[in-house]
Every structure is written in structure tokens, then in C-alpha cells.
Amino acid sequence: MKLSRLTPRPATDRTSAEAFIRANTKLLNPPLVSVIQLYLAEESLPIWQKTEEEFGEMNVPPPYWAFAWAGGQALARYLLDNPKLVKSRRVLDLGSGSGLSAIAAMKAGAASVLACDIDTLALAAIGLNAVANATTIDTTADDLLGEDPPNTFDVILVGDLFYERELASRVLKFIEAAPDSALILVGDPQRNYFPRGRFEVAAEYQVPVARELEDVDLKKTTVWRGSKVH
Predict the structure, then answer these.
(1) Is residue 173 assigned to a domain?
(2) What is the pLDDT of residues 133-146, one digit of tens each?
(3) What pairs with residue 218 in β-bridges?
């Protein structure tokens, strides 16, 4: 379904990236979190093709940011329904994509959110989506999975990142090395490399998704909780 985000890509001009996003997506409401608006693709194949045509020479990855994936929708819904988990806390959103979970965290009252994604088109999308939802989100293109987890975050969000073996291994290693005080929240429909038995179930949702991406209209998706002290 997805390719790896392990290797950073060359930077894309921010203005060009934003223009591309505006031209090829629409402000839509993810069905499970309709209070949030995102610049999303209405169909998968055209945006995939246009991204390749316009940015292929820069080796920009496919437009994962243009879709509200099941794990991100479930995680966002859970945060909005349980705002006390992030209220006045510092949040890190790994592999943020569209920024859906990051936006939900801010709307739930987080003190700050850092959205991390090495795809510069995704970072541009996060910026546009944050403005569309009247939120302020910090972003970074740094590959944080190559570093020790910082102790400056109270909550770490992981939405739909267990789809590729090496990436899943790095994400799990990052989580395992996180400070004991950090609350780990994972939104995932148990994709191929999800570490079964590692997390506790916090909530389950039937998430409306695009059949052309997931081969189903509704995908059972779980929010998992992994923390030593919460």
C-alpha cells in the first residue's frame, strides 16, 4: 500500500508544493472526524500520477498526505473524545502525513504539537491544513527515528506506520526507547507489521475509507495505548 519513509527526499519549494496541493485536492471532512477539514484527493490514481509527473525527478514519494488513512482517523477521533490525554501537554506526531492527528491534538487542547514527516509535500500539506483548522502546528523534516527519543514530549502519536518491515522496526525501537513518562498512542488497523501483543486496546472504530485504497468501505481500526505509567 505505502512505500518507505526511511530516506529523506530532496527539498521541494514550499510555494510550489502548496500550489500543487491546492490545485489537486479539495478541502474535505474525514468521515470519522468531520469537525476537521483537510486538503484531500477525491480519487487516488490521479493524484498519484500527477505527483509522479510533477515531482518524479526529485524522487518525491507518493502522496500519502492526500488521504485520511484509517489509523489517523481513529487516532484523531480518540483524541477529540478524550481531550484530557493531551490537554496542556507537549505532543509529537510521528509520520504525520496530512497532519490529521496533530490537528486533533491541538483542538483537544495540547500545549504544542510537533508534526514530523520527511516528505516536504506532506509538510506543506500540514501547514495548509493547520491554517484551514485555525491551529498552529510546528513541523520538522528531520528523521527523528534515527535519533534517541527526546524527553521534551509528554505524548507520542503513531498513526498507520506499521506497513513496511524496516520502518515498523524503527518505529517500535523509537517507542521502546521513549521516556517512561511518555504516553504512546497508536492508531492502526493491524497492518502487516503491526507488533501484536505489544500494546493495549484503548478504543475500536469502524472507519469509512476509500475502497480503491483499502479494498473495503469500512475498516476496523484500533487505537492502542502503550505506556509504563499512564
Answers:
(1) yes
(2) 999 999 999 999 98
(3) 208
